[in-house]
Every structure is written in structure tokens, then in C-alpha cells.
Fold this protein.
Amino acid sequence: MGGSVFLGQFEQMVMLTLLQLGDDAHAINIRSYLEEQAGHRVTRGALYRTLDRLEDKGHVAWEADEPAPERGGFPKRRFSVTKQGLKALRASHGALHTLSSGLEAELRGP
Amino acid sequence: MSIKRPPRFAESLLRKLLPRGIRGDGVIGDLREEYVRVRTRRAAFTANLLYCANAILISVQYSLPHWRTKKPNPRATSDQHHPWTGSVETLLQDIRIAVRNLLKRPGFTLVVVATFAVGIGGTVAMFSALNSAFLAPLPYDDPNRLVFCTGRNRESTTGFLSAWDLFDYREQNDVFEPLELIRGFDVSVTITGGERPERVTEREISTGLFSMLGVAPLIGRDFVRGEEEVEAGRVVLLSYGFWQRRFGGEPDVVGNTLMIDDRPHTIVGVMPAGLDFLREADIWTAVRRDTGWGSSRGPQNWYAIGRLRDGVSIVQAQEQVNVIGQRLAEEYPETNANRGMHLTVFRERLVRGARPMFLVLAGAVGFVLLVACANLAGLLLARGVTRSGEMAVRSALGASRGRLVRLLLTESVLIAGFGGLLGLFLSHWLLQVLKQLAPASLPGARGFGVDVTALIFAMAVSIAMGLLVGLVPAIRSANANIAGQLSIGRRISDSLSGTRLRGTLVVAQVTLSLVLLIGSGLLMRSFWQLQSVDPGFEAGGVLTAEVALPQGRYSSGVEVSRFFGTLSEQIADRPGVVAAGAISRLPIASGGGDWPVYAEDNPPADQSEGGSAFTRTVTDGYFEAMRIPLLTGRGLGIDDARDAPIVAVVDEAWVDRFLPGEDPVGRNLVLGNTQRRVIRIVGLVGRVHGFSLSSNPFPTMYFSVNQWPRRTMSLVVRAASEPTSVTSTVRNAVSEIDPNVPVAKIATMTDVISISIAQPRRTTLLLGAFATVALLLATLGLYGVLAFFVNQRTHELGVRVALGAGSASVLRLVMRRGLLLVGIGLLLGIAGAATSTRFLQSMLFGVGSTDALTFVVVSLVLLAAATAACLIPALRAARVDPLTALRAE
């Protein structure tokens, strides 16, 4: 993996969600936000896998929050986008933007 | 509030499968958090199920690629070096391949998963029910030392005892720690003093019962021994449900007064929820030695529960109570000759009524499971043959035999797992049905549900079933001859032994289904017989309602008889009413109220050998409203006034028992055994099923409400049209006479009868459903095997047709093959049914357990279904076009 500069579509969606949620970016919230906002069914496995992959690439970092009692002492990770992640996101976004210029009418649809 | 935990086994599975460290732990924590949220909205069962499903999905989706990326494995592409090493990686890889394979054939997968679900669901439901009813410990202190004490005479050991006898047993024994009394039936009483009068169920017990069982009141205190004496104030314990309903759970009720039938009772405590000891009751009152039900040695209305002292066996205890019984018989020969006390282990007694039904249903479920297994094994075997090409390719690419067997087994266990999950839902539903079927006294019946034990059981059954039905097909497929398979190309051949094995499986399915079908056929016939029993009255068009007069305001017999006399007359005069009357105990709905009696001209040789008959108080219009025919003499009427000599009307069953072959009118009967009363018989009416449709009509004597007034009577109102149309007429008539008298249990007489046979109806339906499922599976199995046979032989059939065989002879060839299997199965099934249906005997009514008609009809039904199943592939075979068949090569 690793070498690619651009992010996958789902990776971008996850990172955008992290930015939107800010301090609330815990896995459960990320998933429900994605499902609500993007209208996209997200399986837990896919989300965790993507978060791990983004972490391995250095795009995402996490901090452990104080675990609530109902979690039975299991840690709760709060995710955030790293500087490098932001750069990659901008690059992907910019590329998309460039590629889509002049196509606004088609992309907007009838 | 304690924090809910997801199922432990699922979580520990996750811990094993997810990566160690914070990544895995974070996921487990997230799942826990979601679980807690779901639990606030959904039932524990649903939440647990969702959690398990999510755990499985996450393990598959998340950890599969994880292992691959985290622990790059050079052997991942070729696994021939470690066929049986228990590496998780290989297992996960197998799972992935299996999932992909299953998704490729959704139809096949669906059928197989559904079959597994039926087998596993039924088994888990029966396991849970049997476990909580027969195996799980009773919720009482040291329940194994509890014994049930019933009355014994020459005929039976299940009768009641008199309260005074029981007091003597209690005082004279030294084998019981305590011995406590319970009245044998519940009484409906009226609670007044609130906004409206309310009818509740009252049970009378001796004061030490709850402490003996180890059940402490939730608030307040238990009864104390002194409260059995007549000079003590009347006391009552409330059930949790009644406390919530009437007092809104107010803790201050203790010490308050509750008006029960207009008598003040002091509330001493509230019992905890879920105390469904024997049956539900709203309130418990303490037995009193010198008044009411507890005040005599003659009438037998009680049984008892005792706790054996340490080191005393039930046999020793029985010996001692026999000695006491002997002593009582000598002391009170009038009442106690040939009477004694019989001891039974407590749990035995609780499950007695339910055992035959549960064992039959458990047997049926076992059969369905076996049929499902045979079906699945057949399907997987056939599937294995069609996949032999794939296996050959895998094997040629380097997969070892062990690895192939493992792959196939993983597939079947995986399907079994999904089937098991689906089966859990099914069992949850089935348990709701079983709950309805179980008698209220059955321990744990109301708590029937899928618990952790059941979940573990379901998992174990699923895995075992998956391995069982998958093993032979897997080994066979893996053994496929590579060179042969690859060179033959697309044509797939099957061995002779494989054909034989599948044939045997079909025979087994037909056999087992036939046994089940015959069993359910017998139950259906028995139910049909039961339904067509003539109850002795015309139930259609009759509305019934119970009216109970509070004792305080209606203390004299005159007031009671005037109330019911006026009420019946007034209702009968209203528009829409054809006739109206009342009876002290409604037939079918309640038995009991029997008194010792004999005909004066036909006294029994031995006083203790006398029989008994139901006593019933009726108003004038009762016989007319119920359309019970008056055969000779007269009915009861105005002439039978309070001060006139008491007279009785008897029924045919009474005459058969006490004056066989004679006209009873003008003769005398002798009622009671201590204080005998001679009563003249003035009329004879038709026999009535007083107790239930399935038991023979019991001898019955009717008395006029004027001469034998009773405070609780059931109205019977015959309406001109729909019986429910007179509901408000009845309510209004009662409240016009006295607005403080409650009208309860309003129902049509048809419903009363229907409710009385609800249990046999449900048992019949349930067994019928199991049998239908088995029939469906067997038919499917048969179809599958024949379709497969035709598929395999297309080439051969084509050659036959090309050589001149007509389509009829091809049809015959295939049909012969199918019907041979069915024939063997039918013969074995009939033999099996003939030996096993006797277990149904106790549940059958009016039909023998080897009823020839049922056997024949059911066999024909199965034969018809089987023929249809054979016909489809046979017709396809008959239409084989030789050109196409041969070109297929």
C-alpha cells in the first residue's frame, strides 16, 4: 500500500467526517455520521479497517479518552486528522476540483 | 442500576480474533457501548442476538485482511505444507472461500440455512423449555426435600384432605420440619372500599407456608402461627401484581384494612413479584381453624406441602403418615375410614400434568431434527458430486486432501452457524407458543426464553450438526479422483455407494416423517372427536357472566335468593333475551362442589364406599336457557320456596350411578356423610359434561336458589341473536338492582368451551406444524435425489430414447426408482408409528393409538406428496431429447 499519494473515496469520506466531528470523532459517531450524512451503509469492519490503514499511512492519529463505565474499562479512541493527512486530503480534493472544472453542468445533473 | 454486559462467550471470541492491543480493545469497547444503548431500547434477547451477529461480522470483515496485512505470510498462496495445523489464518481463509462459495449459489444456501434453522430452532426451544421446567432448580429453599401431600382413598391418591385431618397430621408427625396447608381451589372474592368493587382470586394457606418455601415478603411481614386461631384478627398478604394494580405500589399499605367480601382484613405484607407458586393468586389469606373452609373434618378441600426433616426419606415419612392416618380412621370412622395421606416428591407433582405433552413434543422436535439432518446430508452429498470438478482443480493446484475436507467442513459449519442464528429467532417464537401450552403450575413456565445456556446449546448443536452432516460428503468429495474428473470434462459421475447412501437418507426421511404425520393425525382426529362431543346443552347463543354478592351486605340466604331470582326474571323479560337463568358453577368452566350421596333405596354396602355427585344451585330459568331437556317430572320453580321441603332434580348420569335403570322421580336421595339429609327427587334432566368435554358426564344434582342459596352464581342468558348483543342488558340489570355488585367473566358459552380445549388444540397445531415441516423436508429430499438422478443420467436416458425407448418407459424408470424408496420408507414408518404412538395414548380422546383409518389416510397423504415429488423429475426425464443429451457430451 503506502506509496499512493491520492486517497480512496471512502478514505476521504472518513477523514472529512473526522474534521466535521472534531472532538466527538469516536468510531461509533463516525459511523453514524457517515450513514446519516452520506446516506451510505457503513459496515463496522470496513470503517475500523480504513481507520487503521489511515493511521498506518500517518494521515490519522488518535488519543485515548477516559473510558465510560458502560465500556467495561475498554479504551475509547478519539481520532483526528494529522497535518500530513490534511495535506493528502487537500491534494486529493484539489485534483478532483481540477479534473471537474468545466464539467459543472454535467455533474450537477438535469 | 448495574451495567449490562454483552454475552461473555461472544466477547471472549472477539478478544481471540481481534488484534491485541488498543486497536482490538477499542473495537470491543465500541461494541459494548453500542450494546448498552441497544439494551435500553430493545429486549435483552434481541440485543444479545445483535451483538453476536455484529461480533461475527466484525471478526470476518475486520480481522481477515488484518491478519494478512499485519502478519505477511509467505505461505499464504500455497498451504500444502500445513494441512491440519490449527492456524487461525487458514481457518479464516477457509471461511472467506466458503462465504464466497455460498453467496455464489444463493438458492441452495437459502434452502440449507432454512433447513438448519428449523432443526436447530426446534431443538433449542425444546431444550430451553425442558431445562427450565424439568431440570433447573426450583426457586425455593432446598426444594428437593419438599413433598406434596394429597388425600388417598381406595380409588385414588390425588384427592384432597380435610383441614382438621391436616392439622392432626401436622401436630402428630416428627418427619416434617413444618407441614403447611393450601386450599385445593381458589375462590373469587370481592374487594370493596375503593372506587369500584373488584373481583380477585383468593388463596387460603396456613401461616408457615411462605417461610417454609424460603420466600420472604417484599414489604411488611409474613403470617404468624397465632393468626390461624379464631380470636386473631383476619390478615391478608397481597401479591405484587395486585399491590401494583390496586395501590399503585404504595408502600404504606401495610397495616391498612382491605375489605374482602365486606369483611375487614389487615394487610400484613406484600409478596415479591413472580411468586407464581402453583398458580397465580391476587391475595393470600390465613386459614382459620374454627371458621370457613378450615373448620371441619368432613369436607375435603385441602392439600399440604411438607419439608422432610434432615435424614428422613420420603418412604419413612410415608410410613409414619400411614400410622397417623390409621389412628385418625379409628378415632373418626364416619369421615376417615379408608382415608389416608399420600406423599409425592414436589417437583414430580408440578411437572406431572405437563410431562406427556412435553415428551411428545420433544420427540417430535427430535424427529424433525433427524429429518433435517438426513435432508442436509443428502443435499450436501449431491452438491459434493457436482463440485467434484472444482475439488479436482483445487487438488491439482496443490491442495491436500485434509485441506479440502477442512474447506468443505468449514462451509457446512458456517451454514449451520447462520442456520443456528436464524434458529434462535425461531426458537424464541416457539417458546412463546410453549409458554401458552404449559400449565400454570409448571415451574419456570412463565420464564420460558432463550437464555445463555440455550445460546451455548444452540452453538453446540449448530457446530455438531454442521460437522455431522458435512463430514461424510466432505470426505467423499475430497477423495474424488483428480485425473478421472479432469479428463472426463464436464460430465460428472457418481459412485454406486453414493447413490445408495442418498437413497438410504431418503428412506430415513420418509420413515421419520410418516411417524410424525401419523402422530399428528391421531391428535387431529382426537381433537375432532373432542370438538364434536355433545356437552349436554346448547352452547350457541348463550352469554355467561359471573355475579358474586359480597358477604357483608348479603348475609342471609333470603337476600341472596331474592337477588338472583329477581335478576334472572328481569333479564328474561328484556328485549333480545329468550331465556335467562343462573347456576352456582358453570358447566365445563368449573368442576368441584361434589358431595357424598346415595339413593335411599339403593344404599352402598359399606358407608365409606359411597359415591359423590356435583351439587348445583340454579334459578328457575336455567334449564330453559341452556336447553337442557327435562326428561321426566318437573323442573325447579316458585313452588320450591325457602320454607318448603327441599327437593332436587337429578340428571341421567346420577341415575346411572345411583339408581341404575329406575325412574328417580318421587324417590329420595341421602346427602352428606356426617349430617345426613334426605331430599326428594322431583325431576330428571339430560346429562351434562360438568367438568370437561373429555371426561364422562359426572352425576349432578340441582337445587333451587331459594332452598340452597349461594352468593356466587353464573348467569346464563340465551339471546335472540348474537349472544354478545345482550352484554349491556346484563350489566344494566345487575347495576339496577345493586350498583356495588361487580359483573365478571363475561363470555359466550361457546368461548368457555373453546377455552377449555385450548391446550389440546395448541398441542395438535404444534405437532401438526412439526409434521408438516418434516413432510416438506422429506418431499424436498426425495425431489432432490430424483432430480439429481435424472441430471446424472441424462446421457444414459438419451441413449435409451435414441435406441427406441418410449417416454412412458423412461417415466416408469424414474418413478420406479423414487417410489421404491418411498415404499420402503412407508413400510418402516408404519412399523415405527405402530410401536411409538402408544406414548400419545394419554393425550388421545375417543381414538386408539393404532387407529387404522389414521394410519391409512396419513400414509396415502405422504404417498401422494411423494408421487408429486417424483413426477416432476420423471417428466423431465421423459422429455429428454436424445440429440441434446448426446450433444451435451
Q: What stands out?
A: The first helix of chain B runs from residue 8 to 17. DSSP finds 27 helices and 22 strands in chain B.
